[in-house]
Amino acid sequence: MTLLSRARRILASGAAALIALALVPLAPASAQYIDVPNPIVEQRADTAIYKHTDGYYYMTASVPDYKRVELRRSQTLAGLGSATPVTAFTAPSSGNLSGWIWAPDIQYVDGAWYLYFSASPSSSQFAQRLYWMRNTSADPTTGTWSAPQRLTTGWESFQLDPASFTLNGTRYFAWAQDSPSTSYNSHMYLARMTSPTTIDTATAIEIARPSYSWEMEGVAGVVEGPSPIVKNGRVFIAYSASATDSRYKLGLVSASASADLLSASSWTKRSTPVFQTANGVYGPGHGSFTVAEDGVTDILVYHARDYATPTPDALTDPNRHTRVQQLYWAADGYPFFGQPQATGSGQPGIRGQYSDKCVDDYDWNTANGALVKLYTCSTAAVQKWEFSYVGGYYRIKNLHASKCLDNLNGSAALNADVGLWSCNGGTAQDWSIVDQGSGWFSLRNRASGLCLDNYAWDAANGARLSMYTCNGVGAQLWRRG
Ligand code: AHR
């Protein structure tokens, strides 16, 4: 880069930065590099994590013997593993809740805490029915929980996996239930709540049923574990499909936030899974959404095993562990789940599909204009990238250089350089995630409209990175990890 072009660039970047600051949302109040050692809590499945205004995460989940509802809290996600659980309810030796207790959810509504879960009699352990309990203590790990009461859905059949959310002042309840109209194990339903303990059963609608082969693997058909999140003007509900072994996976339904959510026609279902077995993580599913400690970065909570074949069976095997990782937002405003990150920590780099190497601040260079290249993936800081969502785009900051991934010349030329520059909010540093399927994504630069590219398909250490016409080929496919 000549002195003149550098001067031009500095002037341009200064002007661009001023214009950019006027045109694009300011960077989030804070952003956070997400690298939580997974799994965070062993032998806890169907995990619900609720981040409260008191700064604590409150977590509940299915326990291996399905005989109690437990609760724990921590001020950090990583701290949940060492937090001491307290028991909110223990299955009695007889009666309607003496069998299995499944998939509790925790919510804070109108000044009180609620635990929702399904339970069955020991005489018929799959005869699951929904229940609620209330605790008016400020800290739900203390105080007293009310005795479980039925939460009726309008018809009696196998029902499980409670979830709820509020939108425009209306509280909605989502759950899974066996429909008398099909032989599938479960469909997914939504209804309005008239109180934290009452479903307006007259409003209940089916929002999804098994309709793809990937929802019927090892079972007649499973659509369960609804997990809602509202963002970008839409309501998204992730759900779990197929048997709870390595074939378990996430699907996604969504509706416009301005639509009538209680009209079945408002909901559409993605035709392919959005999150599934990969990288030594088997059967990821049935989780929830929360935010990181910064209160801004979206987090996906899910369970998975670290081996393929559960024994003696997919329900009795206790090793569905709780895991968390960053949830992203694709260019179309939909959530991008990516792939399960491998067990351990230190992986969230940007790993190329073709090269299996990671985007690296080469030579540990911290100067403006430093080139990024590919290098063998490691846990080194030069490969750690903080993805900050600024509404449609990400600013991707290298933790070693504390500088942002940048289309260095603001160029739209094919094979233009990509490197690091002081983070300035310019469009040369705005990258959108383009979902390329199976958890792979491409990164499209806002200034050039071109995609980060492993140029010349070079898989050697030090291989050049540039931008090229977005084509979705292996040289342009990346994953976190
Ligand atoms: O973990 C128990 C049950 O197994 C959950 O309620 C359901 O989501 C899964 O199929």
From TrEMBL:
One of its GO terms (molecular function) is hydrolase activity, hydrolyzing O-glycosyl compounds. Keywords: Glycosidase, Hydrolase, Signal. It comes from the Bacteria. CDD domains: beta-trefoil_Ricin-like. One of its GO terms (biological process) is carbohydrate metabolic process. SMART domains: RICIN (SM00458). The keyword Transport does not apply. Residues 345-481 form the Ricin B lectin domain. The record marks 161 as: Important for catalytic activity, responsible for pKa modulation of the active site Glu and correct orientation of both the proton donor and substrate. The keyword Signal applies. InterPro entries: Glyco_hydro_43, Glyco_hydro_beta-prop_sf, Ricin_B-like_lectins, Ricin_B_lectin. Residues 1-31 form the signal peptide. PROSITE patterns: RICIN_B_LECTIN. Gene3D superfamilies: 2.80.10.50, Glycosyl hydrolase domain, family 43. Belongs to the glycosyl hydrolase 43 family. This is Family 43 glycosylhydrolase. It comes from Antribacter soli.
